[in-house]
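Example with several molecule types.
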Amino acid sequence: MVQDEQVLVDRISSGDNTAFQEFVERYKKKIYYIAYDITGDHEDAEDISQEVFIKVFRSLKTFRRNAKVSSWLYQISVNASIDLLRKKSSKPEKLMDDIERADIQENLPGSSTHAQNPERRAEDIIIQKHISQALQKVSPKERSVFVMRHYNELKIREIAEILNVSPGTVKALFYRAIRKLRKELSFYLGNPGLEVSNE
Amino acid sequence: MSDCKKCQDLFDEAFYEELDDKQKDFFESHICVCEACESEYAEVTSTLKLMEKRARPEPDQAYWNGYWSRLARRMEKDKTLAPKSESSWRSFFRAFTLAPKWAFQTAAALVLVVLGIYIGKMLFSPSIPEFQQARQLPAVTSQVESSAEYVQRAQNYIERSKLIILALINFDPETEDPYALSLPHQQQLSRELVSEASILKQGIADAGQRHLQGLIADLEVILLQIANLESERDFEAIELVKKGVDSRGILLQIHVMDFHQSTKIRDKTTPSPTASDTFLNM
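Resulting structure tokens for the full complex:
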């Protein structure tokens, strides 16, 4: 895989026009999702993912040959997402009500809202909202670690490489995120009626 | 490390089923006998399972199919908006930093020698005899009058550039928050100064102020680099700008200019021969 990535990078560096498109096709989803998980916003995720590819295209020639392309891409994406969150944190955030948020979810390209009964749908929307809000309460770095580990299935070692910290630090950030999420979502975790299932 | 600490350190791998056989044996046997760890692990597990309920909206295939064309359009737009020289300057400075240390030392020594000669000439050169002064006076006066405005503008330009460069030079990413740098503001000022530089250089050249012209050209390069920094976190590029300032001896040149400026003011208050514009005429 790493060798394959390297061949692609070499092709781009040598001016092969189709190689960059191939590169984008290969990584676009990974980059979009990591940016979405950190920022929680479709527009921001699209913007960040495009910025990442533009940056990569400009600096591919300086890419260290012994490094892993995907780790490098994640690194740029995570940094760009954290930067954006910090910029946004200085601006007042627009508060959305549940209905507005649900509308946005429905209007996302291809978003498949289930045609279940309205009660279940409303309950889902509320849980989703609380989970998203809880994630926003976690610091950008803790959130990055959490989403990379939990939603993007990266190993502790890989996250450590991406964030340029020790695996111990990654674990500490991960547990800190879990503790904060637990505190924020204690209503669901302590409520027998809303037992968490694996479905 | 105590067994509890060792066990808690494995919670993460245990949840994602990444334990090897030995770790798994230890983890399971410890959890069976330690209520505190068992309860702690149950809490971690329930939180992670709850977080799995988060649904990530999936854009449809049409969105992904159009991704490349949107990216290509944006790249094309960026290409037309971005200054053409960015990549070439960057690669130039990258290549510059690869030069061996002795090359910089030699260049710095040469710059110091040349500056020493100029300063020596300026401070210790004999004064022009009075009759020569009298002959030269009309020409010099008219030249100074015609160039005075540009010199004044150039000094103002250098002062403003110095403030931007000092802000960047004094920025330490290890100890300071990158946002304290106010990079967007500095970039805006840098862009304004870069656009002013070409007119100023022409005026200075016409006025025969070659040294000032050189300094403004050097500043223009550095300001262009600052204007093109991608973010406060692009520490590599910031470091390159710092090296550029260092290798061109920009701050030294500005200090020398300030020194001459103060000498000029002093000379005006205590009448003495002709030293005034020596630096500006260098």
